[in-house]
Amino acid sequence: MNRRNIITVILAPYILFGLYIIYEGSNSLTSNRFYYLEHAMLWDIFGIFLLFVVSRINYKFFVRISTYLLIFLIFAIIFTIFKGQSINGATRWIVVKGITIQPSEFIKPVIILYFAGILEKGRTVGGNVLSKLTIPFTSILLLVSLLTLYQKDLGTTIIIIIISISIYFLYIERPKQLYQLLLILSIFLALAVVAIIIEPYRLERILTYSSSQTSNSLGSGYQLKQILITIGSGGLFGKGIGYNIGKTPFLVQGTSITDSAFAIIAQELGFFLTTLFLIYFIAIISLLYYIALTIKDYQGKAIFITIVILIFFQSIINIFVNLNILPLTGIPLPLISYGGSSTISIFLSLGLIYSIIYFDDKEKDTSDRRSLYKRTKHS
């Protein structure tokens, strides 16, 4: 079984489980109990189609056009800020022919490609070029971060900073460059502190987390309290599969299929089976990382590893927020949470992984044929 098929086999049950959780958490939210499930299935089918298309196109092509894609998405975010749809005080979405799109979700794979492109040039040229790229790197990342923060999307901003810092780290070759990375990290940590202080609701979430004020069911601890009650009600063995069918989840309206989907998992499966779910997730991440290390082209390997980091940290932050290990922030659980833009973004990222493997296999086949030809010629 080739590497792409192995990934497909291990991801398929995870994706199907995500659809089940969406059905469980949403069947009482509308009069049509299958409404969200049907939409989630459509997004998954469309995402798989895009994955297949992207997997057949050389990922280096996407690296080459990543500058144009990034510029387009930056303007899309700016347009969203002024003309977008506002929900709960946050303006992150635009509506195109009845379809709600969140442009910032697509920044994640595109910024990986963009930074892989400019950092690879620095690596291949050699010398001190990577150090000279520090200012452009920081400037682009700062611009994107400020735009997503202005949309009141701290979660997406954190993920973008994590994956950007990660791919920069992968291209470090000298100790001096590590110091530059630490300087960049310090700048964005300071930005995060400022972002929390200037927005009262963010500061309130931090204070709620630090003081464990979840007992205030009418204050900032309300959503967290509902999440913890839902998780705790699962106990060791869970309420059982199908528990939420026909019931209104004990969560803030709508979050049972988005940011708090993990709470539904823990409620129905309980501690032991939820632990198995987490072990399965870690197995997926470990497998993806191991396969990434087998890629020969360094740029492909760096993109692959950074996408694995994207999926890992986005999942871990979501789970830790639900468990009150981290302060409350809105980040979807990849391949589990409901959301068209986040789902398509992840499938596009997986498509890049498949593309990297596909063209790595082709390169190996070509290399093997050349070696065979040389041996045949000399014999």
Search tags:
mainly alpha, 2 domains, 3% strand
Q: What report would you give on this structure?
A:
This protein is mainly α. The protein has two domains: 1-56 and 216-370, no CATH class; 62-198. Helices cover 73% and strands 3% of the residues. It contains 14 helices and three strands. It has helices at residues 3-26, 35-55, 59-64, 66-83, 103-125, 129-132, 134-150, 154-170, 175-198, 200-211, 222-233, 261-293, 298-322, 340-378, and strands spanning 85-87, 90-96, 99-101. A three-stranded antiparallel sheet has the order 1-2-3, with helices on one face. A hairpin with a 2-residue loop joins strand 2 (90-96) and strand 3 (99-101). Helix 1 runs antiparallel to helix 2, helix 5 (103-125) packs parallel to helix 8 (154-170) and helix 5 packs antiparallel against helix 13. The chain starts with a helix and ends with a helix. The relative contact order is 0.15. The mean pLDDT is 86.
Task: Please compute the radius of gyration using only Cα atoms.
Answer: 22 Å
Total domains:
2
Order of helices and strands: HHHHEEEHHHHHHHHHH
Approximate strand percentage: under 5%
Unreliable spans are: none
What is the molecular shape? globular
The major beta sheet can be summarized as:
3 strands, antiparallel
- DSSP summary: helix tally: 14
Distance between the termini: 32 Å
Helix/sheet category? mainly alpha
Mean pLDDT: 86
Helix proportion range? over 70%
Question: How is the topology of this model organized?
Answer:
Elements: H1 3-26, H2 35-55, H3 59-64, H4 66-83, E1 85-87, E2 90-96, E3 99-101, H5 103-125, H6 129-132, H7 134-150, H8 154-170, H9 175-198, H10 200-211, H11 222-233, H12 261-293, H13 298-322, H14 340-378
Antiparallel strand pairs: 1-2, 2-3
Helix pairs in contact: 1-2, 1-12, 2-14, 4-5, 4-7, 5-8, 5-13, 5-14, 7-8, 7-9, 8-9, 8-13, 9-10, 11-12, 12-13, 13-14
